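Input for the complex:
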Amino acid sequence: MSKRAYFVTTPIYYISGNPHIGHAYTSIAADVLARYHRTLGPTFFLTGTDEHGQKVEQAAREAGFDPQAWTDALIPKWKALYAAYDVGYDDFIRTTETRHTTQVVAVFERLKETGDVYLGTYEGWYCTNDETFWLESKLIDGRCPNPECGRAVQWLSEENWFFALSKYRDRLVAYYRAHPEWVRPERAYNEMMSTLEGGLDDLCISRVNLDWGVPLPGGGVMYVWLDALLNYLTALDYASDGERFRTFWPPNVQLIGKEIARFHTIIWPAVLFALGLETPNVVFAHGWITLEGEKMSKSRGNVVDPFELVERFGSDTIRYFLLREAHFGSDFSFGEEKVRLRRNGDLGNDLGNLVKRSLAMLARYRNGRIPAAAPSALGARFADLGARTGALVERLAFRDALEAVWEFVTALNRAIEEQKPWELHKRGDDAALDAVLYDLCEGIRWLAHLTFPFMPATARGMWTQLGLAGEPAGAWSDELVWGRLASGAQTAPAEAALFPRLDASVA
RNA sequence: GGCUCGGUAGCUCAGCGGUAGAGCGGGGGACUCAUAAGCCCUAGGUCGCAGGUUCGAAUCCUGCCCGAGUCACCA
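Predicted:
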């Protein structure tokens, strides 16, 4: 059974401001999937930035920059976010790159040829101040409904390009019915299905009153959302039928925030239908991080700075927290005290202390050398742990996966209490002592593999302390076989704890 | 307003037709290898409210109350 190549994407992030914790959240989840799948076969993890559109242009002008110079200046900060959280993407695409814009135009031409893109007239009430078309029904006393504007609107009629979205409505409905799990979680699927049942209008995909976008032949620029969606194709060299495209299309998992589900689960598959391409296996709309139950927003002044956070707690602690605290599809409330409790509890007391006490006893009783393996009840009991955890990761059930791993952590701690190596040593029961110590080392090796996608730095730390070279790699089904840890090797326990205790003043 | 999702032990949540569960916090205990960590024991909550279906309902149906989301941009 050959394992197909794995392709995972995040949305390309709209670069109108600085990155925040939500961007880190999505990126970390994608990174976990990518790291896990790299143990199984060829994997491609794509992310990037969405740099066109009115808001970016406006922000740039206000800062006294030309839009390109402005986005160029912001990019390092975005890339720094990935570095800070150990997110290892395979490609980072910017919609202002030539490789993207040329392909966008090629797609546009192709859709014109198939008749899915046509020239039409866009009419509506337009507010020049907001540069927005408003529906008649939204107007308040015939004026702009934006409470901060309220200016008079004018009837405008523009010639524009349209995408024949309505034509694909029935096919989308049929597709949804045939693939009930293609949009997840179920909540998102249901919402999008009801949107579809409400009917679809064709989509205006060009903007004549905007300069900052991909220029279309004959004038105007492409609607920023279509431009953005196409990144998933252009990054793979779709237009030239590149090697990447042939290897990795279609995406296995596309992660999105729930607010952009409509674009990714209605417009996007319709575009792919029009292009005659396969659709993604799964579009997963994850939940929002709220702060003490409230939505984060600049106006509330409760935005969590991801850089400050990682500096205080460390990348692995935040990565673990974000994926362990709530189910991936649900919203959850962020709080620094919660982070601290996870850090000191799960990570410090359970995992970090387990590694430290195990290797300390090995050093004290066996000069740090890994003893010979013996038949192990523990190994037998957890024989399916790799398979179970892997299945959960593949389903994006990160929380359940980590819970499964922590059951193992608890079992190892319990094994120490039950076997009491210190008593075995006093009693001179060498066989029993060797057996426990081996189990502990082998357990730590397993934990290094299992935690690697989630906490790469910590996993490497455990690996190195066991005296192993490199880093945890290879499929769990091959590596998580009890007894693979070679005996006789010299361990290298670290002086420093994996997760030093943080007192309340830190958080 | 339409639609969606929630309301279960102090907190975060699981359970989703068969006499209430986990983790954390709190309380108690025995130990000492370890980051005053770990391990063991301990939670008596009318499962939002009111009806209904059923031999039997957190679990299905109806109504109501409360909270959140979504229907325009936003991970």
